[in-house]
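LAB NOTEBOOK - FOLDING QUEUE
OPERATOR: T.R.
BATCH SIZE: 2
PURPOSE: Compare the predicted structure-token outputs for two unrelated chains run back to back under identical settings.
PRIORITY: normal
REVIEWER: second-year student, initials M.K.

ITEM 1
FIELD SEQUENCE / FIELD STRUCTURE:
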Amino acid sequence: MLFTSYNFILFLLALFVLYYITPKKYQWLLLLAAGFFFYSFSGWDNVAYITVTIAATYFTAVKIGQLYEKQESYLRENKASLTREEKKAYKEKIKAYQKKYLLLCLFFDLGILAVLKYTNFMISNINSVSRLFNGREISFLDIALPMGISFYTFQAVGYLVDVYRGKYPPEKNIGKFALFVSFFPQLIQGPISRFDDLGKQLYSGHSFDFRNVSFGIERILWGFFKKLVIADRILVGVKTITQDPETYQGIYVLIGMIFYAVQLYADFTGGIDITIGIAEVLGIKLKENFERPFFSKSTAEYWRRWHITMGTWFRDYVFYPVSISNVMMKVSKFSREKFGEKIGKRVPVYLSSIIVWFATGIWHGASWNFVVWGLLNCLVIVVSQEFEPFYAWFHNKFNVRDKFLFRVFQVGRTFLLMSAIRMLDVYRNVRVTFQMYGSLLTKWNIGEVFNGALMKLGLDKSDYIVLVFGIIIMITVSLAQRSGSVREKLYARPDIIRYAAYVGLFVSIIVFGAYGIGYDSNQFIYNQF
């Protein structure tokens, strides 16, 4: 039951009505039941996986919390008799126990993810090596990846690490914790929420608020507009170009890059809009996951604006712990002694960055194209950081930093660079992707753009007209958001203008939504993760 299905829309309507006629103290139970009902459509074996993850994380967090309480009680009762060294030793002893429970649960939770998502990838690589020596190949396992497993696993892991760090006490009610992990709007593609941001909102009752409900519905409609009118329409052109790389080379690769950038943005942000809108109707505020990423002037800035909750998750739970770990401190010390202070201080940062981007790539998909995609992003960011002094000199020398045309150049450069790297996502083959990069230089058949060949990509004139107007609307809204919420601005206008926006979005979705043969109006790109 995916977001664009009729069943899901009926499910939402029923839930919204039931939610606001249910007493506030029981609303969280309704959301819990709704989450498992929604997830059951993906298969009962998937329900078993998420349930096991919930149970393991809950009991481990409770145990870690109990050890904190035991420590505080012991230190309080023996405050007068213990020396400072004895207190420190006791705390270290408790911390060691907590760490064992933490690592055991992390191994279990991430192990489920690893086995289900990466087993066949590992078998594929083992078979590739085995073929070199004429060895026996291992059969692939018939494993279906549970919907949204990466998202709910990361959410559970983040919660457990925060409890271990003492950021907040563990949730004592297993049902409430289960709701945090299984909150259905964000199960498919995020955002990845933190317990201290989302927990209290889920458990607090919410009264019907016309403003929240209307804002939420507007956000849902906006998400459907981006998904059905733009993303699913341009998807046909993306498939035509990328599924036949022998035919579509040169200028078509550039067209495919631009098409896929538009498709991915409209698809992913459209899904997030629907997620945030659903939560808003229920009186719950989720974190924003995008901040106009295509207006970024550098790759690093792009990744601060794109899939924000994923980026901050990797920063807080992978990059920081790795960069300050004992192993990395030893590497840093060795590097400073051998290569000098200038290089030595960079080594732990760059090694940690490589680890993070490798993990980010493999998180997106169990194949080498995603690993290369992640490492290419890392390379571009690291090289950019190393060239910062040169950039500063250039900007000061030629006084271009605040020039409009130079900013346009930076935005265009970043857009094309990120779109090029993203083609590893589309072709799903490293060799083919780099061959297509090469064809941009060797087969620059730009004349085909003007000879009617674009009409042979599965899109006709009316499709291009709808896409152009849809993209213009999307860009206009993004520009308008720089000075504040568009919905707030609409709400301040006369009712007739606001309702006209409702009706306009709704009619556009019905009339111009991409449905039928050749279009896929059900599957969101990030469902696979």
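ITEM 2
FIELD SEQUENCE / FIELD STRUCTURE:
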Amino acid sequence: MTKQYDAVIIGAGHNGLVCAFYLAQAGLKVRIVERRDVVGGAAVTEEFHPGFRNSVASYTVSLLQPKVIRDMRLVEHGYRVIERPISNFLPQEDGGYLKLGGGLKRTQAEFARFSQADAEALPAYYDALEGVAQVLRDLALKSPPNVGEGLRTLIAGASQGWGISRLDLAAKRDILDLFTKSATSFLGQWFENDAVKAAFGFDAVVGNYASPDTPGSAYVLLHHVFGEVNGKKGAWGHCVGGMGTITQIMADVCRQSGVEISLEAPVAQVLVDGDTVAGVKLESGEEIAATRVIANVGPMLLYGKMLDAAHQPEDFRRRMHGYKAAGGTFRMNVALSELPRFTALPEPGEHHQSGIIIAPTLGYMDRAFLDAKAHGWSKKPIVEMLIPSTVDDSLAPPGQHVASLFCQQFAPTLPDDRDWDEEEDAAADAIIDTVEAHAPGFRASILGRQVLSPKGLYRKFGLVGGDIMHGQMSLDQLWSARPVLGHGSYRGPVKGLYMCGAGTHPGGGVTGAPGHNCAREVIFDRGNWRRFTAI
């Protein structure tokens, strides 16, 4: 087989595009092969009802690395993010509400309506969280030390551990707490009021099929706060045009850099010659020769379907068989004739431009998880609603709106051999009922809907178990152990095979970090020291 490409990348999601950009800038001949007819992976904007467009899966911006934004010159190509005026709005079961965000003093005043002690504790909590979040920011664009690489492992471990070693004892305790404790336990150290704890605890179950009582869930809370928008740490926002705007811009930048992108080109197999990758074989039968194959699909897809088991060491294969990918996520987009009128705040306002969280207590979240384990989904699920058309009139006709419903605690596989294809409409109705209880008339305002169960997310985007993170963000699947210890530096078990997706460090979310880091490792292995140090 004649060598044609320096690298072929499986999947045109944002990390694959980022990786391709850096490799092309280093002079490599790169081709991306994408299963779908559009680039973007789970970060795409589609018309789901006549005249209504929305971000289909990924739906909000914070974690995209500023370095990636700068290097790809995304702003110059039209990337624009509108920051939320407040972070979240949480309707309460008693008809009240809590608002989170808009500045420290404003949030303290809001918390004081529920607990003066919690309002007073907030500055110290933010300081503690920010201290640990900064550690994550510092590590996000660094490759984890990889067990088995000798001196390089020691140097990387010492370098990355130095930042933690300089922290004071309280900060080190915070790190230990956040990586090992449940969100319930961690938040209980700081706050007394149930609504206040829920305002922060929601992040602990996003894309995490677990209870906030589950040990390690505090880390998922932390993972969602280390981003920024327009230079404001911890902020979230809406990309004008939806998430697909980001990946369309990235694809244009890649093409301008010489990257070839092939759509409707699903990969059937990673080709191996001896102990080295040789390219990929598409489902069409076409073989594409490449010195390196870089997978921007989840580890379970790569090692379960694309790379023959004969090329995977026995211990590696056994551990990957135990890899956990079960996000428990259910995704809906709805076209609305009007804005929802919440009982707590019926008139239009800043709460419609925030994350609207229906999960009033940690106990509510725990019951939703237990219900899902027993029955497949919760009749009172955890729902986050965003209405991006309140700030972006390109998404819906005048006077009408689109809403994203991002819902948690839906079993990846239903019990009793039930199938999601037969039950997703009933689950969607339960979600709508949950919103209706807080915003009467919501159901009647729905003009159309797009429904994606965990199975639907797998079928459309290749997200095994509906897992938006490409694998659970648990302590045994983080940093050097993501996806498995010994392969935490973006390299697979076959020479020339690499991984650049969310199943590698630092994990899920639209960050671009795995793609950036993987490209740097490819360039390191190629011996291009000048380009390696420049990334």
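REVIEWER COMMENT (ITEM 2): The mean pLDDT is 93.
FOLLOW-UP: none requested
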